[in-house]
Amino acid sequence: MPKGKKGIITVLLLVLFASSAWAEKAPLEFNAFDGQVVGARAIGVGEAFAGLSSDASAPYWNPAGLALMSGNSFTICSYLQRESSAKWEDVIKSDPLRGGKLTYMSFAAPNGALSIRPLSKIATDTHTNINGVETWVNKKVIVNEIMLSTARKYQDNIYTGVSLNYLNSNLSIAQRTKDTSTDITQINVDTGNGWSLDLGLVFVASPYLSFGVSAINAIGYMYWSDYDKNRLPLAFSGGVAMALPQKVTFMYDIKRMYYPDHEDVTTKHIGIEQYLFNMFTLRAGMSGENWNDPDKVAYTFGVGFSENGYILDLAMKRNKIRDSVVPDRFATISIYVVSLSMPFGGN
User: What is the pTM of this model?
Assistant: First the structure.
């Protein structure tokens, strides 16, 4: 190769490396890609659902669970109400959807699903005054995810599932800086596009015992025009579901979140579900990082009704958030969730 071409290639590589090395991270919250927990049934049993995700919410919990569905189902999940003794600003700040209602919508079948999930709708305003220099910053982040999932029976008692997901994000930052001599306004708008891969496996040891593991965002990145790419957080879950006589099922999960720019978070989940008269279901559960600390434990309750493939699930989750006025005090927040499922395509 001529020396001139070698020099051009070397310069281009150096410029590419330098731009990558100097690009700053997008100014996002560490949980901007988490979204809200999906499914009133799963919430009702303490979010212990990796080993029992046999409904249309399976792409969120464990895509392999789709293969355990009994038929096609269209499902929509929504948060109904949030109640708390804390300031409304604190309640909203703890919610990545900032009070948004819709959390999940899916067309699901035993061999695959197409799902939509909003992850973030965050808007923040800050104001500082340092040595007479005032700065106002308004930041808005919107992230949505489209999930294409497939599942199949790998062996007689082993089911596998995969989800390939597309993420789209809009980030806008408006900053105004003012002092005695200057008044400058800067606006930056950027669009991010990303992808992720979810993996799941369910082992049905018997009609009364099943195990499940899932790796959500096993691989995943968000790419920006003006910022360095974001590595999506990995959520690894393992769970067991054990069915007992009298149509009672116990569930237990362990979940660990691996954040690129935040400490890892491990939570434990336990739940119970009982069917009554083949139509009604009662549920209860608890989850948290430390079950010995009541301020870090969430308690859940739920009910369900099903008839001819139509399913209505309701759940309540009660946990605590830190009070911004008195940082050592925690306030209780109650969240009410509904999921509605209906058959389609000639079940």
Answer: 0.87
